[in-house]
Amino acid sequence: MAAADSPSAALRRRDLCSRGIRLAGKMRADVVDLLDIYVEQQGLDASVSVAAVEGVPLAAVERWDEQTGTQRLLENLAAYRAFRALLAQMLEEQREQLGEADAGLGRALAAVLLQVSAFAYHLEELLRLESRGIPGEEGDEPPPLPRLSLFEQKLRGLGVLRELAQWAVRSARDLRQLAKPSPATGTAPGLAESP
Amino acid sequence: MFFRWNWVACSFCLVLNICSPDASGGLVQSCGHIIPESPVLALGSNFTALCILNETCLDFGNIYANQIIWKIKNRVVPKEQYREINRTVSSVTFNDTSSLATPLTCNILADGQIEQNIYGITVTVGLAPEKPKNLSCIVHQMSRFTYVMNCTWNPGRHTFLDTEFRLRYSWPEEVFPDCIPKGVNNSCTVDDIQFFVNTEIWVEAANALGKAESDRLVVDPVDIVKPLSPQNVSVSSGILPTILKLSWENRISDAVMTLKFNIRYRIIGDTSWMEVPSEDTASPRTSFSVQGLRPYTGYAFSIRCMKEDGVGYWSDWSEEKTGITTEDEPSKGPPIWRIIDASHSPASWTVHLMWKALKPFEANGVILQYEVTVRDKSSLSSPLKKYNVTSTNHTLQLPKGTYEVTLIARNSVGASPPSVLLIPASNSEAPVKNLRTLPKHDKLWVGWTAPNNYVLKYVIEWCLVSSSSDCIIEWQIALGDVQGVDLKGIKPFKCYLITVYPLYADGQGSGQSVKAYLKQDRPSKGPTVQTKKVGKAEAVLTWNHLTVEEQNGFIRNYTILYKTIDGNETVVTVDPSKTEYTLSSLTSDTLYTVRMMASTDNGSRTGPDFTFTTQKFGKGEIEAIVVPVCLAFLLIVLLGVLFCFNKRDLIKKHIWPIVPDPSKSNIAQWSPQVPAKHNFNSKDQMYPEGSFTDVSVVEIEADDKKSFSEQDLKPFDLLKKEKSTSEGHSSGIGGSSCMSSPRQSVSDSDEGETTQNTSSTVQYSTVVLNGYRDQTPVQVFSRSESTQPLLDSEEKSEDHAGGADSTAQRQQYFRQNGGQDENNTDRPCFERAKQITHANEGDLVGFVQLQVSGQSSQPLGLGMEKNTQEAALSNVLQTCTEGQTVRPETVEENPLSVDDMPKSYLPQTVRQGGYMPQ
């Protein structure tokens, strides 16, 4: 936390938080838009209920307001690393399925993937400011996803995007919480906000 | 100076083919090569090349390094730049590569001074890339979700080499694909940009000579966004007439950025924009109510946006949208004025009320009608008169007096404040002073000095002055505290009559007028001059004023230019008010050309030429010559007449030579009753005028000698005898007249020779028998104009009595007569003789009878007549036979014969009443 005490570190932290919040908002908006495109393109029903997808971290958490800042950052980082892998998989599958026929969906997926990557970078930077070691990713490569049918791939993609949208909201709130100039940051609970 | 070194890299290898010892093997081997091979060199650096000969060629061709010649293109490199390193290697050094050209060849001077090429290389010279500068990027929003980032930079100097520029950007843990410009070297567009992450952006430039990087730009792309302008802008009117509500849609997500706005608006038709204060629109929104607008006015709106925190770029202005505010009641009353026509009746007026339609921002809506109220201020009891009018004028017939006119304009919302115009019975108040005008660009400023009294307002009337139509009055009202207004709509080169009236609370001042031009030009035509009157040395020129349409300005003066055909032009400047001018000091009888020029402040225009010729004589000159000449002539005539009158006797003597008066002849003296000779000098005394009754003239042509032959004359002799005894005085006289020119005897008014011929004329005149004034008539023979030789002695005596001069003249007279009229005396004499002969041919007695035919009834004495005839005949014979010339001797001789003649002239007895002419 020593680094966080310096004014420049505080500014940097605030800036990162601010950008992270806006990026999360942008990411959510883009994911929501992408969901509409995705549902339409994949021929899915927007109201279809998708069970929890394996490997996709859940945004909902109990006792959110009791989490420390570092906890939040670590959970976020883990989630977005997972999303990065999932989205990359989706992008590859989408290219395999549609080729260049639907470049719009591919571009949108790629854009969201970039945003996820960017948000993960923000989280890593914040963790550095917290003088925390950045956890390494589990292995050099993520575990290969199970081979699914095409429909299952579509449903999984839908579940990934919905969960990402949820995470974007939670991340924004987490960062707002971190941005608050509270001396107990990292130890004391933030505002009693629920995702 | 740089050379262009950007040569195409082409391999150039000229190989000196020398058959190797095993040439039968078919291989061709180069005898050497150059190091380095096709180098790229920095401009301005030094460069050394080596030409290395193959050992195999040394022995075969006796070729060594000292024989090497270096060439740039076809130019031999100076040997100072060579260096023989060993017998197979030669180097060449260039201190400055800018002097290099391609190809650089290594040549050998073989035996026989034959130059052969060994090897050649291409040299490329250029510059390393400079560090790109001024890198800047803008993220353009292309659609709701699409953004592209365009970066530009300054690539630096030209390198003369192929230089590659790359725009690179990255996140700390993410490297993105480079952006490589296409066709340009100073900009590139990235179409995959992500916000909210600081992105490092830089440019790399690289070529064969090096690589350079720009400074790194670290920026969150969201901070350099130029968003799309709001769309679907709409304008709606609100409840209030001064408000319009503007609505729009933003095309950028709130998740990306929140926006602030700029709203601008203008009145439709205006070009200047007004802007809503930026602080009013600094927060995200999709609508805004613009306040403080004019009622019933059309407005155009436009809006733009940018990131709320002001970091980034403003969008373009949106498309304009228009809206109209609702109506409001008119804000002011219409300006009103009047024209009073009092010409048709002295006791009443025709008042033409006129007012101006309110301007849109004053009317605040559509004016439905005007309400005119007229109040007679001179009569309190008279009722108000109201009129509802839809036009902007109204005409009233009013008795002369003072009135107050009130005007109200109404629209659908309400009525305007009233406009009041006082119409006084007379404009008796003080007028404005010092009225003047001044052109100001396209406006005409009218200024005045205010009267001393407080003025409510001024009315400025103006109209275009025209020669062909009436002045159509325009007007405007100025407030009382101003002393000048700008008149709009004034045309240049037109004359305007401007009148200013001050309006007081209790009356009106008389108008002051001035004429003015907004802009003057030279006249459109010149005056046409002509002459009114032309004299010997002067000419009166006249012309008409140019019409006001032709003047194009104030005519400052007229200039008359006149000249003769070969003379210098004379210029005369004339006051513009004149239409006539007299040119003086002109040369008489000379053709002049005159033209006239009208001048304004801005130029002149000359009219057509007019020519005239001055007169040869001046006025009265002819009269001055003719009248004196006539007077002189008359005077001379008068003097001549007077002279003649005074000298009438003398003239008479010349014209009518004095014929000796028979009464004064010896016969008269002989007669006892005849007074003394000297008493008969004047015939008048004896025979006053009127006493002659007639003259008998007997003419005998005496020149026909033949007709008077001896035989022919015999009867005359007989007749002589008979006549000498017969009574009758006239026959005797007539006979003698034959000896003279009968022509001369006929008229006494003949002149010249006729007069002179009188010498041969014998005229016997009346024998007056009447008594004079109851006196007893004396029987005398009166003779006038007779040169009868027989009477010469009498004449002589008379001439003696008259003076020696007259005698001399007489003698001269006869002399001239005889000398000059030789022939003349012949012919007349012959002619007369013919007449006589004619008579004689028949009967000579008839002749006698003829001579006395008028007296045949009278008892004439034949003897007397016979004597007379005899004497006459003798004379005739003498004259005709002796020749044409009457000599003085003859004249002299006559008296001698005449001395005997009186015996034959006896007093004749005539009947009472006198001798009657034949």
UniProtKB/TrEMBL annotation, chain A:
Grouped into one coarse class, the protein's main location is cytoplasm
InterPro entries (alphabetical):
4_helix_cytokine-like_core, Ciliary_neurotrophic_fac_CNTF
Which SUPFAM superfamilies would you find in this protein's record?
A: 4-helical cytokines (SSF47266)
Write the lineage as a comma-separated list: Eukaryota, Metazoa, Chordata, Craniata, Vertebrata
Pfam families in alphabetical order: CNTF
GO cellular component terms attached to this protein's record: axon; cytoplasm; extracellular space
Q: What is this protein called?
A: Ciliary neurotrophic factor
Instruction: Write out the similarity annotation.
Output: Belongs to the CNTF family.
Q: Which GO terms describe its biological process?
A: astrocyte activation; ciliary neurotrophic factor-mediated signaling pathway; negative regulation of neuron apoptotic process; positive regulation of axon regeneration
Q: According to its UniProt record, where is this protein located? A: Cytoplasm
Q: Does the keyword Zinc apply?
A: no
**Record's function text:** CNTF is a survival factor for various neuronal cell types. Seems to prevent the degeneration of motor axons after axotomy.
Residues in a coiled coil are none
Task: Give the record's keywords alphabetically.
Answer: Cytoplasm, Developmental protein, Differentiation, Growth factor, Neurogenesis
One MF term in GO for this entry?
cytokine activity
Automatic annotation (TrEMBL), chain B:
Keyword set includes Cell cycle: no
What Gene Ontology molecular-function terms does this entry list? cytokine receptor activity
Which SMART domains does the UniProt entry name for this protein?
FN3
What is the originating organism of this protein? Machaerirhynchus nigripectus
Ranges of compositional bias, category Polar residues:
778-790
The protein's name: Interleukin-6 receptor subunit beta
Extract one GO cellular component term from the record: plasma membrane
Q: Name one GO biological process term.
A: interleukin-6-mediated signaling pathway
Membrane topology listed for this record: Single-pass type I membrane protein
Give me the segments passing through the membrane. 625-645
Q: Which gene encodes it?
A: Il6st
Q: Which UniProt keywords apply?
A: Cell membrane, Disulfide bond, Glycoprotein, Immunoglobulin domain, Membrane, Phosphoprotein, Receptor, Repeat, Signal, Transmembrane, Transmembrane helix
According to the record, the residues making up region (Disordered) are: 719-762, 778-808, 895-918
Signal sequence range: 1-25
The protein's location, in the record's own words, is: Cell membrane
PROSITE patterns the UniProt entry points to: FN3 (PS50853), HEMATOPO_REC_L_F2 (PS01353)
Quick check: keyword Ubl conjugation in the entry?
Answer: no
Record Pfam families = fn3, Lep_receptor_Ig
**Record-stated family:** Belongs to the type I cytokine receptor family. Type 2 subfamily.
Domain Fibronectin type-III, which positions? 131-228, 229-328, 333-431, 523-617
